[in-house]
Design a protein that fits this description.
Rossmann fold; 17% strand; 6-stranded mixed beta sheet; 5 helices; alpha/beta
Length: 184
């Protein structure tokens, strides 16, 4: 048996990661969400929907949820990289350091966060679409590629990365569209 997981990065946020803890989508992000919903709806039949609890991912999931007439399950396991305790001003420098690093150099807290994502993904029993974040997608793909780098590619807003679960474990089918992008 083979299960396909579609990892969708949220649409463009209305403000950056170091300006807001939980921004919604910009007008462009809303259009991106509509476009990716239409694309996915045309390519696959309805499957399970999961969203990070953050507003930008929930808003990105809404157009597809409406087309499929189902509510996405909110999955804390798909939340963005945790920066608890940092003020907004300190988040960018901290994130830049994390992104430039290796998983083996990260705190136990971040390594546990990554393990939780991988365990959640590996427990899926049916095809699913995950609406999630840049670093979450990289956490999964870097593990599947056997890379210690935190960043192994730059998924664009509303790009779709596909992975397969089978008796042999998880494997990367296809990386999503990449772009030179500011992480928001």
């Amino acid at each position: 048996m083979s299960i396909t997981i579609y990892l969708v990065r949220h649409g463009e946020a209305a403000s950056s990661w170091d300006q807001s803890l939980d921004p919604g989508l910009s007008a462009r992000g809303e259009r991106q969400a509509i476009d990716i919903a239409s694309q996915i709806h045309q390519e696959i039949p309805p499957v399970a929907l999961f969203s990070s609890p953050l507003l930008r991912t929930r808003e990105t999931s809404r157009p597809l949820a409406d087309l499929w007439q189902q509510e996405p399950l909110v999955a804390p396991e798909l939340s963005e990289v945790p920066s608890a305790g940092l003020d907004l001003g300190g988040r960018r420098a901290w994130l830049d350091k994390v992104l430039a690093g290796r998983w083996s150099e990260q705190s136990d807290h971040l390594q546990h966060w990554r393990s939780t994502i991988l365990e959640f993904t590996g427990r899926q029993t049916q095809d699913a679409v995950f609406f999630t974040h840049f670093v979450v997608i990289n956490a999964i793909v870097s593990a599947l590629e056997g890379s210690d780098n935190v960043i192994v590619f730059r998924p664009d807003h509303c790009s779709v990365t596909k992975i397969r679960l089978s008796g042999d474990g998880m494997e990367l089918i296809e990386k999503g569209r990449e772009a030179v992008t500011v992480v928001k």
